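Hi L.,

As promised, YafY family transcriptional regulator:
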Amino acid sequence: MKVDRLVSIIMILLDKKRIGAQELADMFEVSPRTIYRDIDAINMAGIPVRSTSGVGGGFEIMPEYKLDKNVFSNSDLTAIFMGLSSLSNMIRGNELVNALAKVRSFIPANRAKDIEFKTNQIHIDLSPWMGNKNIQPYLEIIKTAIQENKLLSFEYIDRYGNKTERTAEPYQLVLKSSHWYWQGYCRKRNDFRLFKLSRTSNLHMQEEIFIPRGYEKPQLDITDIMTTIQTYIKIRIHKSVMDRVLDYCTYEYFLPDGDEHYIVSFPFIENDYYYNILFGFGDKCECLEPLHIRKEMKRRTHDIAAIYES
């Protein structure tokens, strides 16, 4: 018994008022006897299908079970399509394919073209241009483990390059600022941890099933914290890196400086992450002030140069 055939039959029954066994058999190139077995399986799954005999008879889902297609507005269906489509780019699975098929079954023919047009007006692609090839398969492993309450074993590398072997109960997948994370209860640390997926390696789902424990979602909105520790520095940039600088601040912070450069009031926190952002602009960026950050940039530049001189 093919699951995809059962799903397709359900979609057809949702879309049509009634359809005969022979018509379904011809459609799927199987015998009417096979179709009857499929209908029995669908009934056992909890979807009430009834049959009527005689002229115009066939199978139909009981009317009280069906959803009225007019319940969903064009905007509702467009939003659902965009969400499911963007997620399916990164996390693949039969449930997403089936969900998309079900949503399509709710679209009346006279509204299909308009909904497709509006859906295509916004395209969300979460897949990276390049990078860690393990991200997508690891997302699917974690998603399955969360659904089935199964333990994950893996190696984790901290920000200083230290590698440890871990076992964790997975609870949540998180996409934050184009980076994937997953929250789990780490049995090595006996506490909840937010793991960065790119630092996760040798990930495997275990057969052992865990009993979910109560947990709090990770605090991801750090706007208030950033406001208290963030300051602004003055940098001079070449116009060739303007689009990259705009990833961190808006154009209102740019002041033209001749034909080729801009003076920018740049948001900054004094840590390695932000210093590395400035270095990422290469020789197209100069820190003008404050003086102590300019001196620190100079010191770090000398350290980099010393690596190549030796």
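The first strand starts at residue 49 and ends at 52.

Thanks again for sending the construct details.

K.
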